[in-house]
Amino acid sequence: MGAILYNSSELPTFTLTGLPGLGTSQHWMFLLLGTLCTVSIVGNALILFVVKEEQSLHQPMYYFLSLLSVNDLGVSFSTLPTVLATFCFHLRKISFDSCMAQMFFIHFFSFMESGVLLVMSLDRYVAICNPLRYTTMLTDSRVVCMGLWAIIRSFCMIFPLPLLLKRLSFCKANILSHAYCLHPDLIHLPCGDITINNIFGLFIVMSTFGLDSALIPFSYVLILHSVLAIASREERLKTLNTCVSHLCAIGVSMTARYGRHAPRFVHTVMSLIYLFVPPMLNPVIYSIKTKEIRWRTKF
């Protein structure tokens, strides 16, 4: 089957859905999600401000934390418009181009988060296992390159998805399972051959989430091995404490991500948790565990 290219008048529209069973009470869900999103935006903006203003935080770990905050802000701003329209104003129609744009940004920031968590684990590995070489290994230029790698990798992986979807014919009801556009949801709607889409989707998941999910635990196995070699119990606890915030952020992200393989209702709820809870919890976790951030956020 050849590629099908639509003109602007032929592009399909999609229907967004809220949570099944809530009926006319969907606006209460927006109050919850809107609160989470507001906390996320304020908290991550505050993290960026504190890191910028506090000279003692001008270190690789906090540069990566700032990138994670930018990523969390991107997730919040990408999902909020259609969540507001669906749950609060009951506006469920979304154009093809708007849906493709939202899908691109949601997945772009999701894949970017995985890359940022990986480089943060590398930062902790170098800081604990090679502390004397930390400043020479993680120079400003290398930190910039690592951050750019996380951004460029995510962009290159996600950019083809809207183009691969646009070549297909949509002839079904075009009803989505969420209040926003996700590729796993959209891929079930076309009538044409989606083999290429499925293969490419599997490839990007395995080469990003799959690879990162293997490398991050491996880095912490090496860190744990190095920490256990420290004779003093107090020093071991002090060293591990520098990893607690990052481990909490990883745990929140992974739990929400891999808990989504369930019945439709549970899948929809877990998808909402994945997109709204980690961006809200990350600044809370780092504010509690980082005394410089905790001290500055009191004012």
Q: Could you explain how this protein is built, in words?
A:
- It is a multi-pass membrane protein.
- Belongs to the G-protein coupled receptor 1 family.
- GO terms for molecular function: G protein-coupled receptor activity; olfactory receptor activity.
- It comes from Capra hircus.
- Keywords: Cell membrane, G-protein coupled receptor, Membrane, Olfaction, Receptor, Sensory transduction, Transducer, Transmembrane, Transmembrane helix.
- This protein is mainly alpha-helical.
- It has a single domain, classed as Rhodopsin 7-helix transmembrane proteins (Rhopdopsin 7-helix transmembrane proteins, Up-down Bundle).
- It is 72% helix and 2% strand.
- The chain has 12 helices and 2 strands, in the order E-H-H-E-H-H-H-H-H-H-H-H-H-H.
- It has a two-stranded antiparallel ribbon.
- The longest helix has 34 residues, at 96-129.
- It is globular.
- The N and C termini lie far apart (62 Å).
